Amino acid sequence: MDMTAEDIALENKEILSRYRSLLRASHRSRSAQDRKELRKAFDIALDAHKDMRRKTGEPYIYHPIAVAKIVAEEIGLDTISIVCALLHDTVEDTEITLEDVERLFGKKERQIIDGLTKISGVFDQTSSAQAENFRKMLLTLSDDVRVILIKLADRLHNMRTLDSMARDKQLKIASETLFMYAPLAHRLGLYNIKTELEDLSLKYKEPEAFEEITSKLQKTQPVRTRFVNKFMLPIKRELEKDSLDFEIKGRTKSIYSIWNKMQKKHVSFEEIYDVFAIRIIVDTQREKEKAAAWKAYSVVTDFYQPNPDRLRDWISIPKATGYESLHTTVMSPSGKWVEVQIRSKRMDEIAEKGYAAHWKYKGGEEKSVENNLDHWLSQIRDVLESDSENALEFIDNFKLNLFSEEIYIFTPNGDLKTLPKGSTALDFAYYIHSQIGDTCIGAKVNHRLVPLSYELKSGDQVEILTSKKQKPKEDWLKYVITASAKQKIRQALKEEKKETAGMGKEMLERKFKALGVQFDSPNLLEIEKYFDVDSTIELYFQIANGRFDLKKLKGYSVEGGQLVFEKNRPEPSTRNDEPKLATPVPGKHDTLLIGDDKQTMDYTLATCCNPIPGDEVFGFVTVSEGIKIHRTNCPNAEHLMSHFAYRVIRTRWASKEKLRFEVGLRFTGIDDMGLVNSITSIISSNMNVNMKSISFESNDGIFEGQVMVLVHDTTHLSELMEKLRSVEGVLTVDRFDSSANS
After folding, report:
1. Which of 20, 85, 281, 735 is the most buried (most CB within 10 A)?
2. Helices within 247-390 (DSSP H only)
3. Would 370 be classed as within a structural domain?
C-alpha cells in the first residue's frame, strides 16, 4: 500500500492517541517506574511491528495496544500484564527473543511471554484449535493465570474485529470461542467478557438469529423501561423511608442466553419471561452489606409474592468465582414472574468486572476468592500431570467442570466443601483424596446409607465409607462427573491393568518356552495379529483374564524359533458397506460443490442436522464414512470445528437441482376438528410436498404435531412454513433436527 507523508503522519498521530488512551486506562500503573516500563514496552512493540499490517489494512500495533487496554481496563491487571500484552506477539512474529524480554524487563515477563508464545501458534486468528493444543494451553495456564487472562483479552479483540476474516475462518474462530474461551472467562469471574464473547460468537455463527433478537430487544426496550419503573415505584418509596442508599438497574439478558433458551426450550422470543432482571444495588459499609441486602429483600417481598423455589443466597455462601448476590423471583401485578437481584455496590462490581474489582477491594474476604482460584488451578495441575487420558476426553471433561453450577457439601466435622452440580458420593470421595476414592464402598448422606452413584444435593452432610479390599472398577467412570475423579479412576484402572498384564506376560513366556519359540518382537506381533489386538499390554491382559486361551492356538509352525502362521488364519472383520473417500481430498482453499455431477468425491448428508440446498454448510472428512455435509448451525458443528478444524472443508451447493431432502417440522396450536386435515392438505396438495411421517398429540385443547417432509431447498421450506403458519389455529411452526428428537 503506497502511503503519502500525510497518511503516515495521521497514522502516527492515531497510534499515539491510542497509546495515551491505554495509559489513562492503566489504573494500577501509576508510579513513574510503571509508566517507564509501559513506554519501553510500547516503543519496542511499535518498532518490532512497524512493517506489519492487520487484515483490515490497519497498522498491526493497533492490536497489541487494544489487547493491553482490555487487560488494563476491563480485567484490571498490573503493569507486568500490560507490558506482556503489548509484547504478546513480538517473540512469535518478529526478531525479538525471550532472552531480549528477560534482559529488558525480567524473569516474570519472560515466563508469561513464553506461555503466550507456546500457545499463540494454535490460537491466532488464522487457525483453529485442536484438543492437544487446548491441553498445552492449560499447562501454561497452571503456571501463571495471567497468561490466560491476556489470551482472553487477545481473543476478545480478535472477536471484535472478526469482520475482516473470511466466512469459514469466522465460523471456526466463533466455534472455538464458544467451546473454550467463554467458559474460561466465566470460571475466572469475568462476566462482561464472557457475555461479549458469547454474543459475538452468535453474531457470526447465527447472523439472522442474532439480528432478530437484537431488533426485538430494541423494539421492546420502552415497554420494559415503563414496566420496571411501575414495578419499582412502591419498593423505591419504602427503601427511601428506611434511609438506604441504593440504585436500581434493569438488566437485560444477553443475546446469546436468550437464543440459548429459545433453542433448549423450543420457545419463541415472546415466550421467554425472564428477558430481563431488576437489580437493587445498596451502597453500604462492608460489615453491613448482608443486613442491608436482606432488608431490601424483605421490602420486595412485602409488595410482591416470591416463588419459594427460586431463592438463591450467594451472599452467605459465594460461588467459587467470587460471585455474591441474593436472587429471588416474584410475581408482578401483570402476572409475570420477575427476577430481582439484590447486592452491594462492591458485589456488583465484582460480578461485572471479576478481577478488576477484586484488585480494587483486595484484602479481607477477597482472599477466599483467590484461594478458590488456587484450588481450581491445583485441580487442573493434578489432571494435567497425568497422561492417562486422551486429549479429547480430557478437554470434554475439563469443559464440563468450567461451566457447572456449584453445590455445597458438609463433611462429618461440619467443614464446607464446594463441588460441581451433579456430583456423586464417589466424586466427593475423590475430592477429599484419591486413596479415599479408590477404596470407597459407599457413603452416608445425612446419616442414611447411599450407593457410590448417589447424586448429592446442596446442604448434604456426607461421610465416606471405605474398605481396604475395594478397588476402582470400569463402571465407576459412569458414576462420576468431575474431571479429576475420572482421571484418578482411569489412572488406577491403568495401574491395575499393568499388574494383571504382568501375569499374562509370564503365561505367554511359559507357552513360548514350551513350544521352543523365542520371546521377541516379531513373535509377539504375530500373536497380536492372531488374536486381533492393537497392543502388547492388551494381549497380556486378555491372556491373564482367560479370554485368550493359549492352549487353543492352532494353524502355526515353528521355524528356527520363529512362529509362522498359516495364511488361512481368521482375518479381522472388515466392513464393505462404507463409502470410499475419493481422492484427492480438496486443499485448504478448494470448495466442495454439492450436487455437481463433475464432483469426484463421495459425500453424504449428515443425519444429525439434515442439510438442504440453501442452508449454509461445511464438509467434514470422517475416518470411515467419507465426507459428511453438516449445517453450520448443526448441534455438532461447534465440537467438530473446535476439535478437528483441519478436517473441515469449505462447501457450497452447486445447483438447486430438483432433488428432495428430508426435513422435520414441529408445530403447535389450538386443537380443532378440521385442523389436521388443513395441515396435511397444504403439505401434500397445495405445496406438492411428500410426507414421510406425521404425528399429532392433543392435550387439554392444545395440540403438538411433527411431520417429516421432502422439500427441494430452503426457499421451498420457507414457503411451506409460511403457509402452515397462516392456518387458523396454528400458533408456531419450527424446523427441527430429527436426531434431536430421537
Report:
1. 85
2. 255-265, 289-303, 345-353, 355-360, 366-384
3. no
Last residue within a domain, chosen from 292, 324, 353: 353
- Among 92, 98, 87, 85, CA closest to 127: 92
CB 620 within 8 A of CB 628: yes
Angle, vertex CA 99, rays to CA 96 and CA 101, nearest 5: 65
CA distance 551 to 73: 73
C-beta pairs of 249-253 under 8 Å, 24+ apart in sequence: 249/278, 249/279, 249/281, 250/224, 250/225, 250/276, 250/277, 250/278, 250/279, 251/276, 251/277, 251/278, 251/279, 251/341, 252/217, 252/224, 252/276, 253/277
Same domain, 255 and 326: yes
Last residue of a domain, one of 605, 621, 653: 653
In the chain the first and final C-alpha atoms are separated, in Å, by 56
In terms of domains, do 180 and 263 share one? no
Q: Same domain, yes or no, for 428 and 507?
A: no
Q: At what angle do helices 207-241 and 289-303 cross, to 10 degrees?
A: 100
Q: 526: how many CB neighbours lie within 10 A of its CB?
A: 16
> For 123-156, how does the pLDDT look when each residue is reduced to its tens digit (9 = 90+)?
443 334 445 555 555 555 555 677 888 888 999 9
Range of the domain at 513: 491-565
- The answer on 175 and 324 residing in a single domain is no
CA distance 273 to 269: 9
Domains held by the chain: number: 6
CB 709 within 8 A of CB 638: no
- Provide the whole-model pTM: 0.62
Mapping DSSP to helix (H, G, I), strand (E, B) and coil, where does residue 671 land?
coil
List Cα–Cα distances, 591 to 142, 196, 601, 606, in angstroms. 40, 32, 12, 18
The residues annotated as belonging to the active site are 92-93
Q: Does a structural domain hold residue 379?
A: no
Residues 155 and 259 in one domain: no
- Cα–Cα distance between 692 and 738 in angstroms, integer? 12
Question: Are residue 153 and residue 70 in the same domain, yes or no?
Answer: yes
Domain shared by 507 and 457, yes or no? no
**pLDDT tens sequence across 52-91:** 888 778 888 999 999 999 988 888 888 888 999 999 888 8
Which amino acid appears at position 653 of this protein?
W
Would residue 585 count as lying in a domain? no
Non-local (6+) Cβ contacts of 272 within 8 A are 253, 258, 261, 262, 265
pLDDT digits (tens, 9 = 90+) for 540-561: 888 887 777 777 677 777 777 7
